[in-house]
């Protein structure tokens, strides 16, 4: 380190040279440019003003709110209110129309299905799939096979009251007895009726067993699943004479369902979604291709 | 090629690392190039300020402004052409054509774009005109700059900056007319009812015009403009550039009337070429990056040559080849058709033709099909397969269109359009200038499915125009 009585001046830049030296390297005392200092000062003043005006400092029980009373929550509420207000005319139009009239009005239908798509993604896609394609145990809403029916009124009733929803007295109730587990049918009878159901749905089946199963079917199953497995929407008995299965359509899955049936539950949405939201969902689901 | 370094900036052993650039105070000049610059400036400013006011009748469904970029409507109107957002490639193409055109002109004539047509040059020229008008010519302005702040100086400066800001306002104000209906937005501007975006845009453009044309000037051309940095890549021995014929001018020196010219060059070192230069360079140092090829030094020098009774052309537009030939006392040669210029021209013409073709061949009706992917197909209760599609139809005309949708290449497929169930050949009306999104279902008997995707087409037929738009689609089912 070297010391000097008065600061040395660098010939090229005109700046002072710092009186210390490390390994032969010396450093200039160039002041920062004036514009930089002014900008820095402006930033300091700006940040001080910001602390006063806006929420800034955290504390144990909250934060300094700032004198402007700004809050992102309040801003969100304002934005949402503006969106709601902007949608109000279309919502009013939709509310006044019945389903058929709404479906015939292209503008209303665009609005309703866009809303329905969002509501579906939020509330229904978890079970029915993001494309409404369903899954084992969760019905596909795109096809033309409906357990309870696919017209507007039925769709609305299903969404409002759910399926086997515990908290809704008007919910759709239908329970298939556990024919095997509860001893109503023998192991052989269950195997026979399985073969008969395979035959009904056009799959390869053991003809002898299917013949025996036909009698079992006529005795135990017809009341809900209909003659020749045609289904019964009144009671929510699924159609068996087609290729669409809720719990699988091969011999093993059918036999399991007869022995100890599964019965899915859909919540009742009437208390959770308002009538207009349900209307949008009905129009959306109806437009997916299975609507009747 | 001559040195691209300014002659005065030879670094010395003990020179400072930087020095403040002296302000450039160009002098007034008269001559043919100055007249060309005035004419070009008048035409370009007239175009800039006049075009938004041109009307063009497009019928009841479209705006009647000849040139309009309708940002909220996502459309741009240029006379007969209406550009949709997905046709932005046409604008890209036009920019490519403009760039290649610039390369071509640069290879031929050097940096003439910079000297005559660049907005920076045009507006700087306009601002300098105002400055000269308020504060006088070079000598008066230099004197004023050194003078103490008197009432007269404050008044002159105030007048100059007010006029500059007024021009800036007019510049920024005109820009927004390209994005709004001019006769509608003009009164709104003054009534204070135009949108915030309009005022912010005007403010920004006013400020940038004032800053760039009033204060930055030649710094933009020298330090900010990227074109200045790569223009020399387009130059060759046969490019016309502003040249000082040193073989005629040197050895330079002062000259008194009546003296002879033997034993010396024609340059009398009057520095007029430097004083009129808008970028403040000395052309006698050879071609430099800062030279914008405006030719004002040519005008200045020719004026002096007239006064001393010598022929014009001590400074003039010439090629490097001719400079060498001139020095050797040989006649000039012109090589305008060269591999470079020919190449640029071919690319320019090809790109121009492609853009023109894209504009003329665009269909008034456009269709695109988005197949449902989640799931790819649906099995129906009778075993049939069904695919869902979203068909987007663009009616790019400003008239309603009636169309009929049919399948082509999927003979057994049954088409249903949501909202048009039961129609064998679904027909519907498309509103003018809109995009319609339709839900389509195509159903195929399971016997027709061979385990492989089937490629087919949707035909969208517009009977009124006898126009059929075909769009490819694919039918999916379980793979085997």
TrEMBL record, chain A:
Keyword Membrane: yes
Transmembrane intervals: 35-54
UniProt keyword Electron transport present: yes
Gene Ontology BP, a term: proton transmembrane transport
Keywords (A to Z) from UniProt: Cell inner membrane, Cell membrane, Electron transport, Heme, Hydrogen ion transport, Ion transport, Iron, Membrane, Metal-binding, Oxidoreductase, Repeat, Respiratory chain, Transmembrane, Transmembrane helix, Transport
Cofactor note: Binds 2 heme C groups per subunit.
Top-level lineage group: Bacteria
PROSITE patterns the UniProt entry points to: CYTC
Family matches, as InterPro entries: CcoP_N, CcoP_N_sf, Cyt_c-like_dom, Cyt_c-like_dom_sf, Cyt_C_IC, Cyt_c_oxidase_cbb3_su3, Cytochrome_c_Oxidase_Subunit
GO terms under cellular component: plasma membrane
Ranges of residues in domain Cytochrome c: 111-201, 208-289
UniProt-recorded Gene Ontology molecular function terms: electron transfer activity; heme binding; iron ion binding; oxidoreductase activity
Pfam families: Cytochrome_CBB3 (PF13442), FixP_N (PF14715)
Sequence similarity: Belongs to the CcoP / FixP family.
Subunit structure: Component of the cbb3-type cytochrome c oxidase.
Record protein name field: Cbb3-type cytochrome c oxidase subunit
The organism of origin for this protein: Oleomonas cavernae
Phylogenetic classification of the source organism: Bacteria, Pseudomonadati, Pseudomonadota, Alphaproteobacteria, Acetobacterales
Gene field: ccoP
From TrEMBL, chain B:
Ranges where the 4Fe-4S ferredoxin-type domain occurs: 258-286
InterPro entries recorded: 4Fe4S_Fe-S-bd, 4Fe4S_Fe_S_CS, Cyt_c_oxidase_cbb3_FixG, Electron_Trans/Redox, FixG_C, Helical_ferredxn, Ig-like_fold
UniProt keyword annotations, A-Z: 4Fe-4S, Electron transport, Iron, Iron-sulfur, Membrane, Metal-binding, Transmembrane, Transmembrane helix, Transport
UniProt gene name: ccoG
GO molecular function, one term: 4 iron, 4 sulfur cluster binding
UniProt entry tagged with the keyword Signal: no
Taxonomic superkingdom: Bacteria
Segments passing through the bilayer: 36-54, 88-109, 162-178, 190-213, 342-360
Stated name of the protein: Cytochrome c oxidase accessory protein CcoG
Gene Ontology cellular component list: plasma membrane
């Amino acid at each position: 380190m070297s010391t000097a009585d008065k600061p040395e001046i660098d010939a090229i830049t005109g700046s002072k040279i710092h009186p210390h030296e490390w390994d032969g390297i010396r450093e200039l005392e160039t002041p920062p440019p004036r514009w930089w200092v002014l900008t820095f000062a402006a930033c300091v003043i700006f940040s001080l003003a910001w602390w006063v005006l806006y929420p800034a400092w955290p504390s144990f029980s909250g934060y300094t709110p700032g004198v402007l009373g700004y809050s992102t929550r309040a801003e969100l509420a304002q934005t949402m209110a503006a969106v709601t207000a902007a949608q109000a005319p279309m919502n009013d139009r939709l509310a006044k129309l019945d389903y058929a009239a709404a479906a015939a009005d292209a503008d209303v239908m665009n609005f309703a299905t866009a809303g329905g798509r969002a509501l579906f993604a939020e509330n229904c896609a978890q079970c029915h799939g993001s494309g409404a394609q369903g899954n084992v145990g969760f019905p596909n809403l795109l096809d033309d096979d409906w357990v309870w029916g696919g017209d507007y009124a039925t769709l609305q009733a299903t969404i409002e009251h759910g399926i086997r929803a515990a908290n809704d007295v008007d919910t759709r109730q239908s329970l298939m007895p556990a024919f095997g587990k509860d001893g109503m049918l023998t192991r052989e009878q269950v195997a026979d009726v399985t073969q008969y159901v395979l035959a009904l749905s056009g799959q390869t089946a053991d003809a002898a067993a299917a013949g025996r199963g036909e009698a079992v079917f006529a005795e135990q199953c017809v009341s809900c699943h209909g003659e020749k497995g045609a289904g019964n929407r009144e009671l929510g008995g699924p159609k068996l004479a087609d290729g669409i299965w809720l719990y699988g359509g091969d011999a093993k899955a059918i036999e399991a369902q007869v022995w100890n049936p599964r019965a899915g539950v859909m919540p009742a949405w009437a208390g959770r979604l308002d009538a207009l939201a349900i209307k949008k969902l009905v129009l959306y689901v109806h437009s997916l291709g299975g609507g009747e | 090629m001559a040195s691209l370094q300014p002659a005065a900036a030879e670094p010395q052993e003990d020179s400072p690392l930087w020095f403040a650039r002296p302000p450039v105070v160009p002098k007034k000049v008269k001559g043919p190039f100055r007249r060309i610059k005035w004419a070009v400036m008048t035409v370009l400013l007239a175009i800039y300020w006049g075009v938004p006011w041109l009307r063009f009748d497009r019928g009841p469904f479209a705006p009647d402004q000849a040139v309009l970029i309708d940002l909220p409507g996502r459309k741009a109107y240029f006379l007969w052409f209406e550009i949709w957002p997905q046709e932005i490639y046409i604008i890209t193409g036009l920019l490519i054509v403009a760039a290649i055109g610039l390369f071509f002109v640069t290879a031929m004539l050097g940096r003439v774009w910079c000297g005559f047509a660049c907005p920076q040059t045009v507006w700087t020229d306009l601002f300098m005109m105002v400055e000269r008008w308020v504060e006088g010519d070079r000598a008066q302005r230099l004197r004023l700059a050194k003078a103490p702040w008197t009432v007269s100086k404050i008044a002159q400066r105030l007048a100059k900056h007010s006029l500059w800001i007024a021009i800036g306002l007019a510049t920024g104000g005109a820009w927004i007319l390209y994005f709004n209906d001019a006769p509608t937005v003009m009164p709104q501007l003054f009534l204070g009812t135009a949108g915030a975006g309009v005022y912010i845009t005007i403010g920004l453009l006013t400020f940038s015009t004032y800053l760039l044309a009033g204060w930055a000037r030649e710094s933009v051309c020298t330090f900010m403009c990227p074109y200045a940095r790569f223009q020399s890549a387009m130059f060759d021995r046969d490019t016309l550039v502003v040249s000082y014929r040193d073989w005629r001018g040197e050895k330079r020196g002062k000259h008194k009337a009546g003296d002879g010219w033997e034993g010396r060059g024609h340059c009398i070192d009057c520095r007029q070429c430097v004083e009129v230069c808008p970028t403040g360079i000395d052309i006698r140092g050879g071609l430099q990056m800062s030279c914008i090829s405006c030719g004002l030094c040519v005008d200045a020098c020719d004026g002096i040559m007239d006064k001393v009774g010598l022929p014009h052309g001590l400074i003039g537009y010439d090629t490097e080849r001719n400079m060498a030939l001139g020095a050797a006392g040989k006649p000039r040669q012109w090589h305008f058709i060269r591999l470079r210029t020919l190449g640029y021209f071919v690319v320019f013409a090809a790109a121009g033709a492609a853009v023109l073709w894209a504009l003329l061949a665009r269909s008034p009706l456009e269709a695109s099909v988005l197949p449902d992917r989640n799931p790819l197909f649906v099995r129906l209760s009778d075993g049939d397969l069904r695919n869902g599609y979203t068909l987007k139809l663009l009616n790019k005309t400003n008239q309603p269109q009636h169309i009929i949708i049919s399948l082509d290449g999927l003979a057994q497929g049954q088409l249903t359009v949501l909202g048009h169930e039961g129609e064998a050949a679904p027909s519907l009306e498309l509103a003018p200038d809109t995009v319609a999104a339709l839900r389509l279902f195509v159903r195929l008997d399971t016997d027709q499915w061979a385990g492989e995707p089937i490629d087919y087409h949707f035909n969208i037929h517009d009977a009124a125009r006898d126009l059929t738009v075909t769009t490819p689609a694919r039918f999916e089912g379980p793979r085997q």
